[in-house]
Specification:
The complex is a heterodimer of chains A (390) and B (401). With 390 residues, chain A is of the alpha/beta class. Chain A is built from 17 helices and 13 strands. Chain A has a 6-stranded parallel sheet, with helices on both faces. Chain A has a 3-stranded antiparallel sheet with strand order 8-9-10, covered by helices on one side. Chain B has 17 helices and 16 strands. The chains are: A alpha/beta (390), B alpha/beta (401). Strand 6 of chain A pairs antiparallel with strand 15 of chain B.
Chain lengths: 390, 401
C-alpha cells in the first residue's frame, strides 16, 4: 500500500509510550523506522504492550558507550530524515548524540526530543514515569473518582497525549524543511502532553461569569457523563447518550418503560432534585434488561449507546469484535514471531490515496543490524563488535 | 517564519473533535478560517470547552445553505490547502461542500472529515459523544474499575474527542507533505471510535485470549504497591519505585528494611502477586509523616515520587513562573471574557516557532475582513448581512463567548 511518508527514514531512539506510538503513527504512513536499542534490547520490552507499540519498524542494537557504536549511530543519524529521543534534557548531549552534535553532520535532520518535562523546567531533572507527570501536572486532581482527592489515571494520560505531539511536531518540521531545506530541533514533553488534554476543562478567563465553568467542573460524586452510565442485567454496564445526530423514533425512557422523563435530552435540562426523583426508576428499569438486546433496541430507535467493556474486548478478546471497529479495519491480525497469531489495533488514520499499512510485527532486538548498518557499508563483524551481538 | 506559514485551513467543524485539530494546526502557524453558521457553533452554549477548541482562528459567519453563502464557501475552499470538518456521513455532500465538490475547484486539496464512528459500516450513520468511545475502548471499565466491584467511571478530559482531532492533525500534515512532494491531494478521515482505541492499544488478543495488563485497585490509587498514590498524614503522594534499587530505598526510607528480604516481596512479580498484603503494610507507614516530608526523604534516597498538585482548575499552572517562561501558557484579551489564559505552545521549534494568533473569535468576528479578501465590496457585504447570508458582531450579539 502506498504511504504518504514513503521514503522517509526515521531513527527511533525513544523509550516509553510517547516515542514508540508517535513513531508508529509515522511508520504506518510509510516511513521506514529503525529503532535503536541498547545491546540485548530496550528494557521496556518486558511489558507486552510494546509488542504493538514497537511494531512496523526495524530494530538495531548499538552500544553508545563503545566509540565504534557511537560513530555507527552518528552515521545512521547522518543518513536519517528524523531522529526521535526521549531522554531527560541533557542526557543525549552527554552521550554525544545531542542535537548539535548530530545536526552538524546532517543539516536536513529533524531532531525530536520528548522528555517528561521541558528543558529548563524546575522538574526537568525529576524522574519522568507517566504517573509522576499525572501527579505533578495536576491531572490526577482533575479526575473524578469514588473518593475525594487525587485519582490515579489508569490510562497513562500524559504519554497518550504526547504520542500525538511527537508526530505532529515532526511533520510540521518536515513541511517547513520543504521550504527552508533545513531540519531543526523539535521539542515537546509529557507535561505538554498532559496540557493537551486540559483543553476542555482548563481556561482562565478574568471576566467570565461563574456559569462559564459549571457544566465541566469536577464534582463529587462525579457529574454530567456519569449520569448516563447504567448497570443492566448480569452485572453488565452501558453508556447512553443524550444525542446521536439522528431523530429518535421511541425515546429511551419509553423503551425502558419509565414515563417521567421523555428523553435524555430533556433529562439533561432537569434540576438535580428532579433528576433525583427519576434516576432510581431509570436505574431499576435498566437492571431488568439484558445488555445486547437493549443496545440493539436503542440503536433501532436511533439512540447512540455503547457497552462498557474491559480493554481488549472491542478487538474480540471476549467474543465478537466491535462491528464498527472491524468495519474501520481497526481489528488487525498480526503474526508475531514470539506470541503467535495476535489481534491488535489497526491503522487509525484513513487516507484515500495513500492508505499506509501495518508493516510487520515488533522486531527482535538487533534483528536488522546487518541490513541497516550494512547499507552504510559496515561489514557484519564490525557490526557485531558494537551491537552486543558477539 | 512559522512551521506552517502560508498554509490555509478552512474549518467547517463545530463542537470539539472537528475544531480542535484546526486549532492545533493554527498554533503551528497556519491561517485557519472558521466557517461558522450564522446561528453560531452549537458548542458556544457550553462556553468553556468551546473556548478550548477555537483560539487563533479567523471567523466568518456564513449560511452555506443560501446560494450566495455556498458560493463564498467555495471561494474559500478554492484557496485552501486543507478543508476540515466533523459532519456526519453525507452531510457535507448534501451541503455541496463534500470532497467531490472541493476537488472540482481545488484538485490537489487535502480534505479531512472526522466522524464519530466511521464512513461505512453498521453504526456509521450515528453521531456520538466522547464517553461512548471511552466505553468501547475499555477506559471507563478500567477506571472504575468494574473488576474490583466499582461502577465504571468516565474520564473528565474528553480525550476521545482530542484523540480524534489529533489523529486528523497527523493525517492532514502527512497528506499535505505527500501533496507537497507529489502534487497529489486526497481525502482522509478519522473517528472517535478509532481514536479512543489507541488509548488501549497495548492490550491485544493472543491465541484467542486478551493479554494480561495492569489493573487499577478499588480505591483508584494505582497499578501496584510500588506505583501508586499513598495517603500521608496530610495529603497524597505518588510514588514510582519501579527499579529494584528504588524498591529497596523505599523500604529503608519507610523504616521497613525487613521487607527487602521478605520472600513474599522478593521481586517485581512477587510484589504484584502479594499486592494487597504489601499495600496494606506500606499504607500504614506512609501515615507517619507529611507528604512534603516524604517527598524530600524519598527523592534524596532516589525513589521517584511527586506530589499530586491541585492547580485550582488550571489557574496555578497558568500562572506558574516556569510554565510562563517556557511558553507553556498563552495569554490574550477576549472582548467578552477579558484577559484569558490557556495552554500555550505544546511543541517548540528551534527554527520555525509556532504562533498563537489570539483568543477564540466571536461569531463572524472576521467576516468583513475575509469577504474583502475574497473581493466583495462594502455594499455587497451589507447586502449579504441584510439577507442573513453572513453575520458579524453588532449590538444584537446573542452569545456569551
Amino acid at each position: 500500500m502506498p504511504g504518504a511518508l514513503d521514503g522517509l527514514k526515521i531513527l527511533d531512539l525513544s523509550w516509553g509510550i510517547a516515542g514508540s506510538l508517535g513513531a508508529l503513527l509515522l511508520a504506518e504512513r510509510g516511513a521506514a523506522v529503525s529503532k535503536a536499542e541498547p545491546p540485548g534490547g530496550c528494557p521496556f520490552r518486558d511489558y507486552d504492550g510494546y509488542a504493538v507499540w514497537d511494531r512496523s519498524r526495524r530494530s538495531v542494537t548499538v552500544d553508545l558507550k563503545n566509540p565504534a557504536g557511537l560513530e555507527a549511530f552518528r552515521a545512521l543519524a547522518a543518513d536519517a530524515d528524523v531522529l526521535v529521543e526521549t531522554f531527560r534534557p541533557g542526557v543525549a548531549d552527554r552521550l554525544g548524540i545531542g542535537y548539535d552534535a548530530v545536526h552538524t553532520r546532517n543539516e536536513r535532520l529533524v531532531y525530536c526530543s520528548c522528555p517528561a518535562y521541558p528543558d529548563g523546567h524546575r522538574l526537568a531533572s525529576h524522574h519522568g514515569y507517566d504517573a509522576l507527570v499525572q501527579a505533578s501536572s495536576g491531572q490526577q486532581w482533575e479526575q473524578p473518582g469514588w473518593r475525594l482527592g487525587p485519582i490515579f489515571l489508569h490510562m497513562p494520560m500524559p504519554s497518550m497525549a504526547a504520542m500525538f505531539l511527537v508526530p505532529t511536531g515532526i511533520l510540521a518540521a518536515l513541511l517547513a524543511r520543504e521550504e527552508t531545506g533545513r531540519g531543526q530541533h523539535v521539542r515537546t514533553s509529557l507535561l505538554q502532553g498532559a496540557f493537551l488534554y486540559t483543553t476542555q476543562i482548563w481556561t482562565y478567563a478574568e471576566q467570565a461569569p461563574g456559569e462559564f465553568w459549571t457544566v465541566m467542573s469536577k464534582s463529587y460524586p462525579a457529574g454530567s457523563h456519569q449520569e448516563m452510565v447504567f448497570e443492566v442485567a448480569n452485572g453488565d454496564w452501558i453508556h447512553t447518550s443524550i444525542m446521536s445526530g439522528l431523530t429518535p423514533v421511541k425515546s429511551q425512557d419509553a423503551i425502558l418503560g419509565v414515563p417521567e422523563a421523555s428523553n435524555n435530552e430533556r433529562y439533561a435540562m432537569l434540576s438535580a432534585e428532579e433528576r433525583a426523583q427519576i434516576t432510581p426508576k431509570r436505574q431499576a428499569a435498566y437492571k431488568q434488561r439484558e445488555r445486547d438486546p437493549l443496545i440493539a433496541e436503542f440503536r433501532e430507535n436511533n439512540h447512540a449507546v455503547e457497552a462498557i467493556v474491559p480493554m481488549g474486548a472491542s478487538l474480540g478478546g471476549a467474543g465478537e469484535p466491535h462491528a464498527q471497529l472491524a468495519a474501520n479495519e481497526m481489528v488487525a491480525t498480526v503474526e508475531d514471531p514470539d506470541l503467535g497469531e495476535t489481534i491488535q489495533v489497526g491503522v487509525p488514520i484513513h487516507l484515500g490515496a495513500t492508505p499506509g499499512a501495518i508493516r510487520g510485527p515488533r522486531p527482535a532486538p538487533g534483528q536488522h543490524n546487518d541490513e541497516v548498518f550494512g547499507a552504510l557499508g559496515y561489514p557484519p563483524d564490525a557490526v557485531a563488535a558494537f551491537s552486543g551481538a558477539a | 517564519m512559522h512551521a506552517l506559514e502560508g498554509v490555509l485551513l478552512v474549518d467547517f467543524g463545530q463542537y470539539l473533535a472537528g475544531p480542535f485539530g484546526p486549532m492545533i494546526i493554527g498554533d503551528l502557524g497556519a491561517d485557519v478560517v472558521k466557517v461558522e453558521p450564522v446561528t453560531g457553533d452549537g458548542m458556544r452554549a457550553v462556553n468553556q470547552p468551546f473556548t478550548g477548541c477555537q483560539r487563533g482562528k479567523r471567523d466568518i459567519a456564513l449560511n452555506i445553505k443560501a446560494p450566495a453563502g455556498h458560493e463564498i464557501a467555495m471561494q474559500l475552499i478554492e484557496r485552501a490547502d486543507i478543508v476540515h470538518h466533523n459532519m456526519t456521513v453525507g452531510v457535507a455532500d448534501r451541503l455541496g461542500i463534500g470532497y467531490d465538490d472541493a476537488k472540482s475547484v481545488n484538485p490537489d486539496v487535502v480534505y479531512c472529515n472526522t466522524y464519530a464512528y466511521g464512513v461505512e459500516g453498521p453504526l456509521a450513520r450515528f453521531g456520538g459523544l466522547d464517553p461512548l468511545f471511552q466505553a468501547t475502548a475499555g477506559l471507563e471499565y478500567e477506571s472504575g474499575p468494574v473488576h474490583a466491584g466499582n461502577p465504571p467511571m468516565y474520564y473528565r478530559f474528553g480525550m476521545a474527542d482530542t484523540a480524534n482531532a489529533m489523529l486528523s492533525v497527523v493525517g492532514c500534515l502527512a497528506a499535505l507533505y505527500h501533496q507537497r512532494r507529489t502534487g497529489e491531494g486526497q481525502e482522509l478521515w478519522t473517528s472517535l471510535l478509532d481514536g479512543a482505541q489507541m488509548f488501549s492499544s497495548d492490550v491485544f488478543v493472543a491465541n484467542g485470549e486478551t493479554v494480561k495488563y495492569p489493573k487499577l485497585d478499588a480505591e483508584q490509587t494505582g497499578l501496584g504497591a510500588c506505583y501508586r498514590l499513598y495517603e500521608t498524614s496530610d495529603g497524597w503522594i505518588q510514588i514510582a519505585a519501579v527499579k529494584e534499587e528504588q524498591w529497596q530505598s523505599l523500604c529503608r526510607m519507610l523504616r521497613a528494611p525487613e521487607l527487602v528480604d521478605d520472600r513474599r516481596f522478593a521481586n517485581g512479580s512477587a510484589r504484584d502477586a502479594n499486592r494487597e498484603e504489601l499495600e496494606a503494610l506500606l499504607t500504614e507507614r506512609f501515615k507517619a509523616k507529611t507528604a512534603l516530608t516524604w517527598s524530600r526523604l524519598l527523592r534524596d534516597a532516589g525513589v521517584p515520587c511527586e506530589l499530586p498538585v491541585d492547580t485550582k482548575g488550571g489557574e496555578l499552572a497558568f500562572f506558574d513562573a516556569d510554565n510562563e517562561r517556557l511558553g507553556l501558557v498563552a495569554e490574550y484579551e477576549h472582548p467578552i471574557l477579558g484577559r484569558m489564559r490557556q495552554f500555550g505552545m505544546l511543541i517548540d521549534f528551534s527554527e520555525t516557532p509556532g504562533n498563537i494568533h489570539g483568543p477564540p473569535p466571536l461569531v463572524g468576528e472576521h467576516t468583513r475582513e475575509i469577504l474583502e479578501w475574497l473581493g466583495h465590496t462594502p455594499a455587497e457585504m451589507d447586502q449579504l448581512k441584510a439577507e442573513g447570508v453572513v453575520y458579524w458582531p453588532d449590538d444584537r450579539y446573542a452569545w456569551t463567548v
